[in-house]
Design goal:
By secondary structure, this protein is mainly beta. It has one helix and 17 strands. It has a 14-stranded antiparallel barrel with strand order 1-2-3-4-5-6-7-10-12-13-14-15-16-17. A two-stranded antiparallel ribbon has the order 8-9. β15 and β16 form a beta hairpin. The longest helix has 17 residues.
């Protein structure tokens, strides 16, 4: 088998996974620990400062039509920053993902209500928004001409949705559960059937957690977990889990390793460059049969905090001081 054949097969599988009933609606990021807002609305405002976060992901570099994703989000608590604790927080996000002939734009708003406990905070969040989904199936070079599964296009289908989540955190640990998209929208209002089934979104369930262990005055170790399970009445995606361990030096420099159960290993570096700016990079190395036919997956995240009172500065992890 040559490289072009593998590329075509990989793209075909990608289109099938994205366009049929088994389509997963949620974006997938290796640097999930710096993008919690995108999969759990209860994370909104948990850093107690107004923050802006941007991420770019180039998946399976070198394969024509492989997914490319960009997202920008902003969130923060509502009210005077002079208050010791603000219960309400809001946020916004906008993202776009291109995969083959598909183009999906995601717009969301977030709301969280936070309860201050003795040594931790419990937050409940809601999100609402819509996807603008397009798919130009007629642009595909089909092996079987006039295949009815790809005889139509979808243009800017509006898929409204909302999500919910809970997030419990302190300066040493966090735990969360969320369902970012509760509805199972149909991709095409004409109800075009694929393999005798109507193509629609699939609901994903997320469970996350992490804990910081201090080894000495310089080094901390932080294991983290993000588990995903996606299912609807027609299809169930395989259980997927990111298991990460990160070493943190001086509460500023971070290097980590993640094992993803869908057969990939991720290398992560992150630095708190200044008291307001943080930058991270991740590289995904596949250990499946697709390895060798792509240049891996690259992901970059940049975050900025609008800090007015430096004594209240919070790092990207939980609520630890700089």
């Amino acid at each position: 088998m040559n490289g072009n054949f593998i590329t075509n097969v990989a793209l075909a599988v990608l289109i099938l996974l994205a366009g049929q009933v088994c389509a997963q609606s949620d974006q997938h990021y290796t640097l999930f620990m710096y993008n919690k807002l995108l999969y759990n609305p209860a994370y909104t405002g948990s850093r107690d400062v107004a923050s802006v976060n941007a991420v770019y992901r180039d998946q399976w570099d070198g394969i024509n039509g492989a997914p490319k994703t960009v997202s920008v989000s902003a969130d923060g608590p509502v009210g005077s920053y002079m208050k010791a604790f603000r219960k309400v927080a809001i946020g916004l996000s906008a993202g776009n993902e291109k995969a083959g002939v598909e183009n999906n734009t995601i717009l969301k708003a977030y709301y969280a209500y936070r309860i201050r406990l003795k040594k931790s905070v419990l937050s409940f969040g809601l999100s609402g928004g819509a996807n603008l989904y397009s798919a130009g199936y007629s642009d595909l070079n089909l092996y079987q001409q006039n295949d009815p599964n790809f005889s139509y296009n979808i243009k800017n289908a509006v898929l409204p949705n909302f999500g919910a989540g809970a997030y419990w955190y302190s300066n040493k640990y966090y735990a969360g559960f969320s369902v970012p998209n509760l509805l199972e929208d149909y991709y095409d209002k004409k109800e075009v059937k694929i393999n005798n089934k109507i193509a629609r979104q699939i609901r994903g369930y997320y469970l996350s957690g992490g804990y910081v262990f201090r080894l000495n005055e310089i080094i901390e170790i932080e294991p983290q977990l993000l588990a995903r399970y996606a299912v609807n009445s027609d299809y169930r995606l395989p259980f997927n889990c990111d298991i990460n361990i990160t070493a943190i030096a001086l509460e500023r420099f971070m290097a980590g390793l993640t094992y993803r159960t869908d057969k990939s290993i991720e290398f992560i570096v992150h630095v708190q460059a200044t008291k307001k700016l943080n930058i991270g990079y991740a590289y995904d190395y596949m250990v499946s049969g697709l390895n060798g036919y792509n240049g891996g997956t690259h992901e970059i995240v940049v975050g900025y905090d609008f800090v007015r009172d430096m004594s209240k500065f919070l790092t990207p992890r939980f609520i630890k001081k700089f």
